[in-house]
Amino acid sequence: MNTQEQEIPKAEPEVAISHAEQQQSAQLVQQSQEAGSPRGVRTIAFIISLALLSAIAYVLYLRSTREQRVARATEDAAVLSVNVVQPTAGSLGGDLALPGNVVAFTDTPIYSRTNGYLKKWYFGIGAHVRKGQLLAEVETPEIDQQLDQSRAELERMQANADLAGVTSNRWQALLAKHAVSQQEADQARSNYIAAQAAVDASSANVRRLEQLQSYERIVAPFDGVITARNTDIGDLINAGSGSNNPRELFHMNAVNSLRVYVAVPEVDADSIHDRDRATLTQDSSPDLKIPGTVVRNADAIDRSTRTLNVEVEVDNSKGVLRSGAYVFVHFHLPAIGNSVTIPSNTLLFRAEGLRVGVVRSGSVQLVPVTIGQDLGNTVEITSGLTTADAVILDPSDSLASGMHVHPQAAAGRGQS
Is 389 helix (H, G, I), strand (E, B) or coil? Predict the structure, then answer.
């Protein structure tokens, strides 16, 4: 029985293997066999090379893409960004405001006509006086003495003339009786004529000294206001305003009517005419409108300023203006139909003339323009621009035609 047990072999454990697993195992065995062959080594090397080439190509692609992005960013940064505005149709400057100087209708320094000492003055600065009103008195003792002497000399001359007249009449009577010669009668007549001429000369000298004495009373030559008094009691007064340069005693202005002188630019000179109405304003009373009238102009352009000197007359009977004041004179000018208005800080002053930078199709064009009126922060353009143009604000000095720019609409008008 033991012999039978030794002859029976031990049974192996059974393993269940599916068909798919058998195929996969066969493929792995085959691949391992191929890998071990020279052909398998070449295949793996080719696959590795292809992977390396793909990785290198991808890296080069990334680098090229990055360089292109940097180049585009550089180009974008090189293009200048500018703010643009569009011109406004029509003119905002129907009212032309220009500075003017107010001048008294009559502005006169008053000097003494005789030498002496100031005895008394009656009016100071700011006093309104009437024509002929006494302003001051001057003591002239030398003139007084000369006048007394001249009057005495006139009396003596008159007495001599009377005697010469009586003598001449007597000689003429004797000549009729042939008691004296014709020569003696003519001599007596000549003496009378000479004596009468001496009387006339002495009388003229008396009148001259009386006139000088009348200048002791300094009177107002017209209705006006005293703007300066440069003397005081006891002051030595020199006559006239000659080479000795005596100082003026008073200064007077006639202020009931004033003159305002305005320098009108040459471009607007043809729009200003005599008898045109004007309006005056001043900073001290901005709400006060003072009417005036253009009375005359120089009818010639000043070469140094290229302006026309215009005179505006103003009725100042109410005393609202002072002579010497700085005012603005407003002229109403007819509007130009095809004009536009742009900010002043769009202008370019070039050697070839006035230019404005306009963006067209992404490029700059420097357009020549003509200014109609300068309104301060804005200017009127009469030719060169339309309302459809994109005008560059605050253009740089390096701006040139043909430059590529990025236009951006400005939030508001630029300020000069």
Answer: coil
Residue 152 shares a structural domain with residue 206: yes
134/315 Cα distance (integer angstroms): 27
Per-position DSSP letters for 56-76, written without gaps between them: HHHHHHHHHHHHHHHHHHHHH
Residue 345 DSSP one-character state? G
Are the C-beta atoms of residues 393 and 83 closer than 8 Å to each other?
yes
* Residue count (the chain): 416
Question: Which strands form 370-374's sheet, in the order they lie side by side?
Answer: 88-89, 340-343, 378-383, 370-374
Whole-prediction pTM:
0.54
DSSP letters, 179-222, are SS-HHHHHHHHHHHHHHHHHHHHHHHHHHHHHHHHHTTEEE-SS
Over the stretch 202-216, which tens digit does the pLDDT of each residue have?
Answer: 899 999 888 888 888
For residue 328, give both structure tokens: 């603005």
pLDDT digits (tens, 9 = 90+) for 109-142: 999 888 889 999 999 999 999 999 999 999 988 8
Domain boundary among 332, 358, 390: 332
**Residue 384, Cβ neighbours under 10 Å: how many?**
17
Domain range enclosing 389:
81-90+337-409
How far apart, in whole angstroms, are the C-alpha atoms of residue 330 and residue 375?
12
